[in-house]
Amino acid sequence: MARGSDVRGGIDLGGTKIEAIVVDDSNHVLGASRQPTPTAGGPADVAQAMAVAMTLASSDAGVETAQLKGVGVGSPGVVDKQAGTVSQARNLPGWSGTFGLAAALSQLLGTEVRIGNDVQVAVNAEVELGAGRPYRSMLGVWWGTGVGGGVVIDGKLWLGRGAAGEIGHMVVKRGGALCGCGRRGCVEAYAGRASMESRARAQHKQGAKTDLFKIMERRGRTKLTSSIWAHALERDDPLATELIHRAVEALGAGIASAVNLLDVEAVVIGGGLGVRFGQPMVDRILAAMQPHLFRDDRPPAVHVAGLGDLGGAIGAALEAR
Ligand SMILES: [Zn+2]
Questions:
Q1: 133 alpha carbon to ligand 1 midpoint, in Å?
Q2: Partners of residue 139 on adjacent β-strands
Q3: pTM (predicted TM-score)
Q4: Are 166 and 139 in contact (CB under 8 A)?
């Protein structure tokens, strides 16, 4: 392929799936591949699965991975961009320590690899290419396995001392549900896919009526993925309906509190669940925000992420420029 030197790779590393794409210099997607995230093993196994996904995306685009100008990765956990390492990625198997992901992947792919924070790269992509384009200030809310976020002020991502934007750990109920972070009452403890799943399992064990796990088994999955939740919701599954309502209420309170503090023009909702549920759910989140908004006469615009499912991978590819 003649344009080989202009193409870049992007990998969105999630708790459930690895999304790899190849883009041209205008960020058009030339090839893509999606692989399940390993559920056992350790960081080296995850890196191997990422390399497989990137290799498949490259062949889909008609290039070799070594021909890519570079590969960007959006990773969960604590990312050290300079060192190319990822630490404490709780939603990935055996990743409690620090792993040199950039070096390992670079070795496997034969090209330079840069690592960014998954939510930050996805929010940057929305600002540059997606639903955030018209705005100078916005809040990105990434609703998936966890609930991540990003704050954009004057057109730039506000990083604070490196950890800004953690909307998922806004406290919406003091002494409330236990969060994956070990604290209580965070938005994520109610709305994160992982938290909703443990709640669903516990309630199901106690006899709550639900088809969530039947759908999961029928699809040969081991986790309640976004599409399983969406499917159950479409069928008015009682437990799914109740848990999603609980999640929406928590998101509404948390996002409204952040809006009261920052008065941003827009809120962009992305992530696996956010994108899968789409605009109807985004409208429900806005309705749940309304009672908590201090300036309830002029709520911010609330949009679903414009780049959809591939936004994280597109954002990752921007890192490789
Ligand atoms: Zn938390």
A1: 30
A2: 151, 267
A3: 0.90
A4: no
At residue 211's C-alpha, the angle toward residues 207 and 215, to 5°, is: 140
Interstrand relation of 98-99 and 85-87 (parallel, antiparallel or unpaired): antiparallel
Tell me how far the alpha carbon of residue 42 lies from the centroid of ligand 1, in angstroms.
Answer: 24
Distance 272 CA to ligand 1 centre (A): 19
Distance 173 CA to ligand 1 centre (A): 11
Q: Is the separation of the CB atoms in 320 and 285 below 8 Å? A: no
Distance 199 CA to ligand 1 centre (A): 15
Q: How many angstroms does the Cα of residue 169 sit away from the middle of ligand 1?
A: 4
- Spatial contact of 114 and 144, defined as CB atoms under 8 Å apart: no
Residue 115: which of 82, 146, 87 has the closest Cα? Answer: 82
The rounded average pLDDT for each run of 10 residues, N- to C-terminus, in the chain (321 residues) is: 73 93 96 95 97 98 97 95 94 94 98 95 96 98 94 94 93 97 97 97 97 97 94 97 98 98 98 95 98 98 95 96 91
Q: Measuring CA to CA, which residue among 312, 278, 300 is closest to residue 120?
A: 312
All domains in the chain, ordered by first residue:
8-121+311-319 (3.30.420.40), 134-305 (3.30.420.40)
